[in-house]
Request: fold
Amino acid sequence: MKSVLVTGASRGIGRAIALRFAAEGYHVAITGLSHKDELYELKNQIEQYGVSCLPYLADAASYPAMQQVVEDVLKQWGHLDILINNAGIAALTLFTDMQPAEYERMISVNLLSVMHSCHLVVPSMVARKSGRIINISSVWGICGASCEAAYSAAKSGVGGFTRALGKELAPSGIAVNAIAFGVIDTDMNRKHLTPEDLDALAEEIPAGRMATTAEAAEAVWQLACNPVYLTGQVIAFDGGYI
Ligand code: NAD
Reply:
């Protein structure tokens, strides 16, 4: 039995990733912050692939909340083959216009969440000398973006953490990689940008468009199919954007 945990799966990229792995026969545990209906609707869709699904409402930035999730998944399924740290938030604002509590939350949800779930899942992977971790990052973590300083800092941290943990876990046969997405067509962008802004953004991308969530999920799936010798990498998936 193959199993995967996807954080922040109630919509967007995480949802597409959860469905992609279900289509490959994986049992899928999913988390979301507050969209209970969307999470349970996704559970129904996942189960149509003949696999089981464990849905959890849990703040990925909360260690105790994620501890409950991981303990329950390990109790029910015995192990996790793959952890996908996808939960994330963005904000488009001047750094000095952010309150400390706002940028602390940005770091918590985008970076500490990744560290928490790795801290909770890695011991069980080390015990089996097998596992894969894929962290969802952003090209802004590589090159930085104006008005996204806290987000860029968090995603840059995800990159550093991924490279280091990849080295730490390679002797245990566990691969740790990140995908740095460019612009994917999800609510995250629609929330902050007007349709005109989105068109202008698409023109800046050499590929001429945003990627779909299905394409993003396919990239994550393909990364998971690589030999574990591919580890500690941050791979940009951005249509040539940066
Ligand atoms: P989205 O806003 O459409 O969905 C985000 C998901 O994360 C939702 O399911 C939400 O419930 C969940 N989430 C948010 N905060 C959470 C928390 N504290 N605990 C648990 N779940 C939480 O976003 P998306 O575009 O699908 O982004 C997914 C990931 O991809 C994020 O890490 C984001 O930074 C990254 N990313 C997105 C883009 C893009 O263009 N959309 C580009 C680069 C990177």
Summary: The chain has one domain: 3-237. The chain has a mean pLDDT of 98.
